[in-house]
Structure formats: C-alpha cells, structure tokens
Amino acid sequence: MELPFTTLNNGVQMPLLGIGVYAPKQTNEVQQAVEWALESGCRLIDTASAYGNEREVGDAIRESGLSRSDVFITTKVWNDDQGYTRTLRAFNRSLERLRLDVVDLYLIHWPIKEHRHETWRALEKIYMDGRARAIGVSNHYLDQLDELLTEAIIKPAVNQIEFSPYCYLPEVLDYCRQKNIQPEGYAPVVRGQKAEDPKLVALARKYGKSTYQLLIRWSLQHGVVTIPKSVKRERIQENFDVLNFTITDEDMALMDTFYDNTRIADDPRTRE
Ligand SMILES: NC(=O)c1ccc[n+]([C@@H]2O[C@H](COP(=O)([O-])OP(=O)(O)OC[C@H]3O[C@@H](n4cnc5c(N)ncnc54)[C@H](OP(=O)(O)O)[C@@H]3O)[C@@H](O)[C@H]2O)c1
Q: What does 231-252 look like in DSSP terms, one character per residue?
C-alpha cells in the first residue's frame, strides 16, 4: 500500500509514517533495521547526531539501492553544538557521517534558551545554501514557537514533539496548524509502556489490531508525522501495517482522553 505524504509549508513532500532510530542500548542494529524498514516501504528515517548512528543510516540508504530522492532523511543538531558557528560545523559533520550532500530536514533538537536564536540563524543559512530541503525544530512549546516566529526569516516547516494519547497537548497541534507548521510525533508507542493499558487493549481488540498499531494509527489520524522505532523486522512490518483500518471519530475522542502526562523525554513546558 502506498504510504501517505504531507506537504510542508515550503512545498516539500514528507512521508507521514517513518522510522525513528534512537537506540541507546543497542549497537550495530540500526543499519539492519533501516534496511528492513526501507524494504517494507518506509521512506522516512529520523536520526540525530546525538543518536550516534548517522553513519549506519547513510550506509543503509546506499545498500538499499533506492535513489536518494526517494528517501526522506531527518537529522538534528544536539544541544552541545548549538550557536551559529558550532551548528554550521555540526551540520557538516552530520553530512559527512551520512555521506550525503543534502538532508531533507534539519531540526534543532531542544530549544536551548541562550543559543536557540543563533542556532536558527545557522539553520536558515543551511537552508538558503540548499543543503537542507527543509528546516524545523523539536520539543518547542507555544512560547518557544512564538519567540522563533517573531525572529525567523524562514518559518520552521516542522515541530517534532512527543506525541501519544498519554501526553496529548491539543494546543500545540492547534498552534502548529494555525501557523502552517507540520507537527511530527516521537515516541508514538510510548516505548511499550502502555502496551498493557486495559483501555487501550480493549480498543485494540475491537479493531483486531495490536495496541502498538492503534497508537500509531491515532497519531496518523491527527495528521501528525509518526516515527515509531523498532530494530525487529516483524515489529517494523507491524508498525507499517496501519493503513487498512480507520479509528472512528468517537474512539479518537476517547483516546484523546487517555492523557496522564506519561512521557519518555523531558516536558518542554518545564525544561528549556
Ligand atoms: N526529538 C526528540 O527529542 C526525540 C526524543 C525521543 C525520540 N525521538 C525520535 O522518535 C523515535 C521514536 O521514539 P522512541 O524510540 O523514543 O519510542 P517509541 O517509538 O515509542 O518506542 C520504541 C520502543 O518500542 C518498542 N517497539 C516498537 N514497536 C513495537 C511493536 N510493534 N511491538 C513491541 N514493541 C515495539 C521498540 O523495541 P525494539 O526496537 O526492541 O523493537 C522500542 O523499545 C526515536 O527513535 C527518535 O528517532 C526524538
């Protein structure tokens, strides 16, 4: 089945479903996982310099034999590299590791207060030099987005935030929609922490799907780019097998009420 795309505010097409590759405890699994994902039809890979696996991601893309333009690659500048000159250098190092001339999306990983303005200026330069097809941010809440939009020459195309029913902040989605910023959701399956939640299990049973598939589908139906991570072949396939069913409006609304502020990362409302 053809995977859906979204069109970013600069006209670039981005797949709505991809794979994340944050794999802290595993080694040498990411290249294989990305190869399996590409075989399953995945065309969006979400990495970051902080994940330490850009080289493996680049190798997987080359091994796949797909043409470069068929794969959408995101990477991110880590906190220690923020600031204008440091970000430009960090970006060059990311390109070297990926062995690419251009990334599809370059993100600020966290909105570090004292550096984010200069970091964004560096991303704008990278974009204007044609070395990133789109630029954006991650972990930005409303006030950080407000600040950025006041200062930016180029509007962010994407805001990547933690996104599951358990940490659902509708105001961020509303804001992004209003400003034509594409929301992207990380940790969509809450790293498995909610797989046994009876509310979710009951709904998954109703649809004949796994709780993982239900969470991914919920995120997609919110129009959010969704990047579940797995290094296991059958799970990667399961996570992509979510396009043949639809959660009803009523059940979407029910899942929206599952909020209990379960997060796998820091809360951007309280950490800068
Ligand atoms: N911007 C940011 O600050 C930020 C922060 C965190 C994450 N991210 C990005 O978002 C991606 C996804 O988030 P995440 O990796 O933190 O969490 P996640 O995708 O919610 O969960 C990944 C975990 O769930 C397991 N899993 C996935 N699919 C499964 C399935 N169908 N059945 C059973 N277990 C399954 C995986 O195990 P196995 O691998 O063993 O299958 C892995 O341990 C990351 O990889 C990264 O690219 C970004």
A: -SHHHHHHHH--SS----HHHH
